[in-house]
Amino acid sequence: MGKSLNEIAQQLKDNNRKVQLIYAFNGTGKTRLSREFKFLFAPKVDGETKLEEIEVVTKKFLYYNAFTEDLFYWDNDLENGVEPKLKIHPNLFTKWIFEEQGQDRNIISNFQHYTDEKLMPHFNEEYIIKDKNMNSVTVESFTEITFSYERGNDERSDKLKISKGEESNFVWCVFYSLLKQVINILNVAELDERETDQFDHLEYVFIDDPVSSLDDNHLIELAVNLAQLIKSSESDLKFIITTHNPLFYNVLCNEFNNSNKKTGYNNNKHFKKHRLTKEEGTYELIPQPNDSPFSYHLFLINEIEKAIESEKIYKYHFNFLRNILEKTSTFLGYSDWGDLLIPVKGDRIAYEKRILNLSSHSKHSAEEIVVLTNDDKNVLRHLINEVSEIYKFKKIKGEI
After folding, report:
1. Is 306 exposed, middle or buried (0-12, 13-18, 19+ CB in 10 A)?
2. Does 175 reside within a domain?
3. 159-173 pLDDT per residue, tens
């Protein structure tokens, strides 16, 4: 029987594991789950209290998700000669990180590592401007960031607007730099010997999909570094990580399946992985086996076969098929996933074109659930049967 996201959040808390890893497709509710989990620790106490204000006061819960990125926005008033700058909505979370914890240098270092060593963020110092009524207004320090390329000879490029992917990386580096400090501080067992007591009551860290803008090499590196950092934690701090990315999920699985005797991390005792599913407005958290990583391509094949059996085939099932072919071609050493269709009965070129046309990403998500023609459905049935037979994909028995 399905559950609400609030009940799923309570289930995660009741599991009481050091690390819980969750795989779910985009749109399933991962980000909303992080909010529901947060409410277990920081419920609204009145109509005026903002959630981020409670979390900084109680410090029982830290999280990274799409709402974290929403704290940052661009000032693009180029018509009035304003240089592009990334501004921060007033909040106690970033004020705490930059001013109280002094993490700006670490954030810059991590950001340059994942983007470009010459791409430099610059944090503002406090300054005063005049508003429309010519009143003096103070702009606080660490509320604006500009970016430029450093030439290596004391020269800088004009200030520029970075890409959305680089912006996501920057926000993640803000969070990651704080997380490293948190773990290091809490690893000091004696409370009176810690450099700060601000994290003493922290219980959970919730990380939702930090890899949307990374290439595969950096994605793997981030997964390894994140897992090693979490496994280095010697305190009672617990972590929940959600993702839609199968590669990120599998790398984390491999890393968390290895124990760390130095810190006492034991994969059998401390690690649990799940798959979050959604059906008709309810959710289910399905345990995944601990002996192997998530068989993502087998899951997609199973989803296509269930769609065929129920006669509910949509455009996005061709996305699934293309994903299967891309991952399989990489594994088998083919340069082009279309080469996998060579032994398939029928017109390989026509099949490839149809997959390309129907798996192309639309700007309108509603188009992804458009019902296909009978001819398209028959092609999908034929291709999934052929591919499964030729490349010997094993059937899934029950849940994976």
Report:
1. exposed
2. yes
3. 888 988 888 889 999
Which residues span the domain enclosing 50? Answer: 5-70+165-287
* 256 and 312 part of one domain: no
For position 77, what pLDDT does the model report?
58
- Per the confidence metrics, is the pTM higher than 0.90? no
The 10 Å Cβ neighbour count of residue 220 is 16
Residues 63 and 128 in one domain: no
- Specify if 398 maps to a domain: no
pLDDT tens-place string over residues 138-161:
999 999 999 999 876 667 777 888
Alpha helices in the chain (DSSP H): 5-15, 30-39, 51-58, 66-69, 92-95, 104-114, 164-186, 216-231, 246-256, 267-270, 296-310, 316-332, 348-359, 374-390
Domain end, chosen from 127, 149, 164, is at 164
- Per-residue model confidence (pLDDT) at position 143: 93
Of 164, 197, 223, the domain-final residue = 164
Q: What is the CATH number of the domain that holds 176?
A: 3.40.50
Coil, helix or strand at residue 121: strand
C-alpha to C-alpha distance for 54 and 45, rounded to whole angstroms: 9
Q: How many structural domains are present in the chain? A: 3
Q: How many whole angstroms separate alpha carbon 182 and alpha carbon 2?
A: 36
User: Which amino acid is present at 260?
Assistant: N
Task: Assess if residue 268 is contained within a domain.
Answer: yes
Euclidean distance between CA atoms 276 and 29, whole angstroms: 9
Where b means 16+ CB within 10 Å and e means fewer, 72-90 reads beeeeeeeeeeebbbebee
Task: Report the alpha-carbon distance of residue 71 to residue 88 in Å, rounded.
Answer: 6
DSSP3 helix / strand / coil % (the chain, rounded to 5): 45, 20, 35
Task: Name residues of the chain where pLDDT drops below 70.
Answer: 42-58, 76-82, 152-154, 211-213, 216, 290-296, 331, 360-371, 394-400
